[in-house]
């Protein structure tokens, strides 16, 4: 098997030709409207949504409204709301008055009845309807999934990360501004159950063959984390005794899978044990935790994590690390729940910084292993995922155009974090840093710079060159060395300017630290032709320029 972290000179030359590789995209006006904080978004702050919709499974349609409450940060009268075709806004009202709406693609610019005064709280109601986009490959493509279970009952779910929540409901579809709280009133046929985010307040029997489920989210929530899941569900629950008290855990599964779910979902409490240890208290005690079966693999919807992994361990029964360790846990339960801390508690302001979600959560898989098994296996799991790294383009995407970076944000990002942990070389401090992240940025949207600066501060060293190397460059830094007359000459090659990462090595079996820079440095007292090994927990390459 090819090991991408052991690279030869030919590879170094070829990869060097793409140093500084840029994102080769041509962005449109619509990309900017979706991905930037436009003037029509910037002047108001979301405070509350009430999404009130009726879903007709037979016709595969939605009809309803979204009440949008906001606070004016500056005086203004035009705001941007997003909704993607084929759904259509039928009207927008403010205190019963119909407002003017100008459409520009997916963006709708709404003029209020009068300018909103600074500090004022305002409400509009956006009415809409239509047949929402059907997802072709959920959850990687956004939209509705319309399926039926083995008993012929409807089995429906939403997923929309990347493509946007505006695929199925009108909203301020940018990550920087999370709504403070939200009520979801979802009407479905009376033989079905809707499961959405937060806590179930009540269920209305409408007398017309439908029921309305009212779910309330008491915490800030990102747009793509909002979901509906509709099926003929069986329900069971438990109470987890956590750091912040009693946490309600509710599970909704297809009735035929109830027995399997009661066995497999025992991993939820084990997940909570591990992640509350490493990251701090579950971030949404007020809203509880739910795991909900869906007709697709799974997604990190806030307090309503979705599951479709077939009640088996691994990733659909496979071990992504190819070490055997990944078969010790259910990948979807662990990974998607890890996002409650990194994605839902700490959320990117711009999807270009999606590594904040995926790198930490991919690394959380190893932390789960370490907590329940041992540190050696946790480290080995992360190293094993290196075979999934492509080094195709930078992990950080393009800002202000709704463009995420490379899929390497998962396991290259996880290996960057493993490397940082080994630089720190202090497990107690590492745990404190992870918990501190979730406390410092609790329920916030953040930039990569904020996370990078936080880590540099806690490490008490400038980690900027390391982040530039792993997040903004495609090359694997390479320790270049040679020995001559009992002197070891070493430097970092294949690296960004100023790269100066310390690294742990063994020379003839004796462990020591090196502090290479991008310039040649010498160390005396080294035997000629020594055996030099790099600690495998550092994601780097090695090259003896004299040949080994």
Layout of secondary structure:
Elements: H1 9-16, H2 29-35, H3 39-42, E1 44-56, E2 61-72, E3 76-82, E4 88-94, E5 97-98, E6 100-104, E7 107-116, E8 121-130, E9 143-148, E10 154-159, E11 181-189, E12 193-195, E13 199-205, E14 210-217, E15 229-231, E16 233-242, E17 245-254, H4 258-264, H5 267-279, E18 289-293, E19 298-299, E20 305-307, H6 331-338, E21 346-348, H7 355-372, H8 375-384, H9 411-424, H10 427-440, E22 444-446, H11 448-459, H12 464-472, E23 478-484, E24 487-493, E25 503-507, E26 510-514, E27 521-524, E28 532-534, E29 541-544
Parallel strand pairs: 1-11, 17-18, 18-20, 21-22, 23-29
Antiparallel strand pairs: 1-2, 2-8, 3-7, 4-5, 4-8, 6-7, 9-10, 10-15, 11-14, 12-15, 13-14, 16-17, 19-20, 23-24, 24-27, 25-26, 25-28
What would you note in describing this structure?
- The structure is a single chain.
- The longest helix is centred in the middle third of the chain and has 18 residues, at 355-372.
- Among the domains are: 44-268 and 279-310, tricorn interacting facor f3 domain (Immunoglobulin-like, Sandwich); 478-544.
- It is built from twelve helices and 29 strands.
- 23% of the residues lie in helices and 33% in strands.
- An eight-stranded mixed beta sheet has the order 5-4-8-2-1-11-14-13. It has a five-stranded mixed beta sheet with strand order 16-17-18-20-19, covered by helices on one side. A four-stranded antiparallel beta sheet has the order 9-10-15-12, with no helix packed on it.
């Amino acid at each position: 098997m090819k090991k991408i972290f052991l690279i030869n000179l030919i590879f170094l030359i070829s990869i060097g030709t793409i140093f500084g590789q840029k994102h080769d995209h041509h962005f449109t006006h619509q990309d900017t409207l979706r991905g930037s904080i436009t003037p029509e978004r910037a002047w108001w702050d979301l405070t509350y949504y009430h999404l009130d919709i009726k879903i007709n499974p037979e016709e595969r349609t939605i009809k309803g409204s979204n009440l949008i409450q906001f606070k004016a940060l500056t005086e203004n009268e035009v705001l941007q709301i997003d909704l993607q075709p084929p759904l259509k806004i039928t009207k927008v009202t403010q205190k019963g008055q119909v407002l003017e709406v100008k459409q520009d693609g997916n963006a709708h610019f709404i003029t209020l009845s009068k300018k909103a005064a600074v500090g004022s709280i305002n409400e509009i109601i956006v009415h809409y309807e239509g047949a929402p986009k059907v997802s072709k490959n959920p959850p990687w493509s956004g939209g509705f999934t319309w399926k039926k279970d083995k008993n012929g009952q409807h089995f429906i779910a939403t997923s929309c990360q990347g493509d946007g929540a505006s695929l199925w409901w009108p909203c301020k579809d940018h990550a920087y501004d999370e709504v403070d709280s939200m009520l979801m009133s979802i009407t479905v046929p009376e033989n079905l159950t809707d499961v959405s985010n937060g806590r179930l307040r009540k269920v209305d029997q409408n007398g017309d063959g439908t029921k309305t489920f009212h779910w309330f989210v008491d915490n800030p929530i990102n747009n793509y984390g909002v979901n509906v899941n509709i099926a003929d569900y069986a329900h069971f629950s438990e109470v987890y005794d956590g750091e912040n008290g009693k946490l309600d855990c509710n599970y909704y599964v297809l009735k035929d899978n109830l027995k399997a779910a009661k066995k497999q979902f025992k991993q939820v409490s084990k997940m909570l044990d591990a992640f509350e240890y490493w990251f701090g208290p579950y971030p949404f005690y007020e809203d509880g935790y739910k795991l909900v079966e869906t007709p697709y693999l799974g997604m990190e919807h806030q307090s309503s994590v979705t599951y479709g992994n077939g009640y088996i361990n691994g990733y659909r029964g496979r071990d992504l690390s190819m070490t055997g360790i990944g078969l010790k846990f259910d990948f979807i339960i662990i990974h998607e729940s890890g996002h409650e801390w990194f994605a839902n508690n700490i959320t990117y302001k711009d999807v270009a910084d999606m590594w904040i979600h995926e790198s930490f959560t991919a690394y959380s898989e190893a932390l789960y292993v370490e907590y329940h098994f041992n540190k050696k296996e946790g480290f080995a799991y992360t190293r094993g995922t290196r075979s999934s790294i492509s080094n195709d383009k930078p992990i950080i995407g393009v800002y202000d155009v709704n463009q995420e970076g490379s899929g390497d944000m998962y396991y290259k990002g996880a290996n960057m974090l493993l490397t940082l942990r080994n630089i720190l070389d202090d497990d107690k401090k590492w745990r404190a840093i992870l918990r501190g992240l979730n406390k410092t940025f609790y329920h916030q949207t953040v930039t990569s710079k904020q996370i990078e600066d936080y880590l540099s501060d806690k490490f008490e060293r400038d980690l900027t060159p390391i982040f530039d190397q792993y997040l903004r460059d495609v090359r694997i830094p390479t320790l270049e060395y040679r020995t001559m007359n009992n002197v070891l000459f070493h430097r970092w090659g294949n690296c960004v300017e100023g790269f100066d990462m310390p690294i742990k090595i063994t020379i003839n079996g004796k462990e020591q630290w090196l502090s290479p820079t991008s310039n040649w440095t010498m160390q005396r007292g080294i035997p000629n032709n020594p055996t030099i090994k790099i600690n495998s927990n550092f994601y780097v390459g090695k090259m003896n320029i004299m040949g080994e």
